[in-house]
């Protein structure tokens, strides 16, 4: 299966995915890294793995539709089957959802439906929960609302700082995301999502 990874920033999840692909633990072909930020660090990581990149931002277009059409054109040129979001900080619009129905997966750093949005880790930390985690889900038109595929729990320790919690959450993401992608994209186990909220931790 040909996969495009979408990322906006650092790209540590991209790196974890590429390591799993290199180790043959994740059977999929990453044919494109797309970023909506021309200067994002993830583009350097893509170069390291010799993954073709495309980078442009919605600001460069007259409308969101025009931006999404440009994204779609690049995906179709590369015959992409699946989109994997790895820190892509934008809502996916109708055009892409229609072109890739149930073929877009996202990772979010909280136990959804708790703490959706841009600051999942901070919001959970500030709420004082004793447990948070990560969620992998199919993408729909909402913000972090699509059907949940898998969740991994992370305990909040009494001496945690936001930074130490972030570190453990990212570690959990890097373990869980490649495993789940292997089930769904690698093995083609498409109903992996529907049965239950699997906890693979
Ligand atoms: C991750 O925490 C992911 O869950 C969220 O954005 C962050 C991206 O981190 N959607 P990175 O760019 O993969 O390091």
TrEMBL record:
Q: Which UniProt keywords apply?
A: Purine biosynthesis, Transferase
Site note Raises pKa of active site His, residues = 144
Q: List the pathway annotation.
A: Purine metabolism; IMP biosynthesis via de novo pathway; N(2)-formyl-N(1)-(5-phospho-D-ribosyl)glycinamide from N(1)-(5-phospho-D-ribosyl)glycinamide (10-formyl THF route): step 1/1
- Tell me what reaction this enzyme catalyses: N(1)-(5-phospho-beta-D-ribosyl)glycinamide + (6R)-10-formyltetrahydrofolate = N(2)-formyl-N(1)-(5-phospho-beta-D-ribosyl)glycinamide + (6S)-5,6,7,8-tetrahydrofolate + H(+)
Q: Which InterPro entries match?
A: Formyl_transf_N (IPR002376), Formyl_transf_N_sf (IPR036477), GART (IPR004607), GART_AS (IPR001555)
Which Pfam families does the protein's record reference? Formyl_trans_N
Residues that coordinate or bind N(1)-(5-phospho-beta-D-ribosyl)glycinamide: 11-13
Gene3D superfamilies in UniProt? Formyl transferase, N-terminal domain (3.40.50.170)
Sites where the protein binds (6R)-10-formyltetrahydrofolate: 64, 89-92, 106
Where in the sequence is the active site? Answer: 108 (proton donor)
Query: Formyl transferase N-terminal domain: from which residue to which, for each copy?
Result: 1-181
Domain of life assignment: Bacteria
CDD domains, alphabetized: FMT_core_GART
Q: Which GO terms describe its biological process?
A: 'de novo' IMP biosynthetic process
Q: Which GO terms describe its molecular function?
A: phosphoribosylglycinamide formyltransferase activity
Q: Could you say which EC number(s) this protein's record lists?
A: 2.1.2.2
Gene Ontology CC: cytosol
Q: Which HAMAP family match?
A: PurN
Q: Which family does it belong to?
A: Belongs to the GART family.
Q: What does this protein do?
A: Catalyzes the transfer of a formyl group from 10-formyltetrahydrofolate to 5-phospho-ribosyl-glycinamide (GAR), producing 5-phospho-ribosyl-N-formylglycinamide (FGAR) and tetrahydrofolate.
Q: What is this protein called?
A: Phosphoribosylglycinamide formyltransferase
Q: Which species expresses this protein natively? A: Vagococcus elongatus
């Amino acid at each position: 299966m040909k996969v495009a990874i979408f990322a906006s920033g650092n790209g540590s999840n991209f790196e974890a995915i590429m390591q799993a692909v290199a180790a043959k633990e994740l059977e999929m072909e990453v044919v494109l890294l797309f970023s909506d930020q021309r200067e994002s660090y993830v583009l350097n990581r893509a170069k390291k793995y010799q993954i073709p990149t495309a980078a442009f931002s919605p600001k460069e277009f007259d409308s969101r539709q025009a931006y999404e059409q440009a994204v779609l054109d690049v995906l179709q040129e590369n015959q992409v089957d699946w989109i994997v979001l790895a820190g892509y900080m934008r809502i996916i619009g109708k055009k892409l959802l229609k072109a890739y129905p149930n073929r877009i997966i996202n990772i979010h750093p909280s136990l959804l439906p708790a703490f959706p949005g841009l600051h999942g880790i901070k919001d959970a930390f500030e709420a004082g929960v004793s447990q948070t985690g990560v969620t992998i889900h199919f993408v729909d038109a909402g913000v972090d609302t699509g059907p949940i595929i898998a969740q991994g729990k992370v305990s909040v320790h009494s001496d945690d700082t936001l930074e130490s919690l972030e570190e453990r959450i990212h570690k959990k993401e890097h373990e869980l995301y490649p495993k789940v992608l292997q089930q769904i994209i690698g093995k083609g186990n498409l109903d992996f999502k529907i049965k239950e909220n699997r906890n693979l931790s």
